[in-house]
Amino acid sequence: MNKILILINDAPYGTEKAYNALRLANQLGKDHETVEVRIFLMADAVVCAIANQTTPNGYYNIERMLKLAITKNAKVKICGSCAEARGLKNIPLVEGTEISTMAEFTNWVVDSDKVLTF
């Protein structure tokens, strides 16, 4: 089984990096069920995992896109020190995401067949 790690560094809104990364993750989940998709949220991308996001009608919603990836068996981890620096340690996060560590991230990097950075 191929393992693809998608590293997201940018905030969920303001640029389209998180949006495009999750579009890719969801397309992989749809078209390539034998590929293991891993998503690691780092720096301002940890905000992607905040629960209860509300966006204007007609505008993409990163929380919904993240939930779709999770329902398609993507594993989603959040940099713990990045989340703590942004005050996210004790707030509700998207179900299925997990606070993680640099050690787990490095293990994913070494164990993945491909690493894509957004």
On the 0 to 100 scale, the average pLDDT is 96
> How much helicity do the residues have?
25-40%
CATH architecture label: 3-Layer(aba) Sandwich
Total strands: the figure is 5
What are the SSEs and their pairings?
Elements: E1 3-8, H1 17-31, E2 36-41, H2 62-71, E3 75-79, H3 80-85, E4 97-100, H4 102-111, E5 114-117
Parallel strand pairs: 1-2, 1-5, 2-3, 3-4
Helix pairs in contact: 1-2
Q: Could you explain the architecture of this structure?
A:
With 118 residues, this protein is α/β, with parallel strands linked by helices. It has one domain: DsrEFH-like (Hypothetical Protein Ychn, Chain: A, 3-Layer(aba) Sandwich), CATH 3.40.1260. Helices cover 35% and strands 21% of the residues. It is built from 4 helices and 5 strands, in the order βαβαβαβαβ. It has a 5-stranded parallel β-sheet with strand order 4-3-2-1-5, with helices on both faces. It is globular. The two termini are 23 Å apart. The mean pLDDT is 96.
In summary, what is this structure?
This protein has 118 residues and is of the alpha/beta class. Helices cover 35% and strands 21% of the residues. The chain has a single domain, classed as 3-Layer(aba) Sandwich (Hypothetical Protein Ychn, Chain: A), CATH 3.40.1260.10.
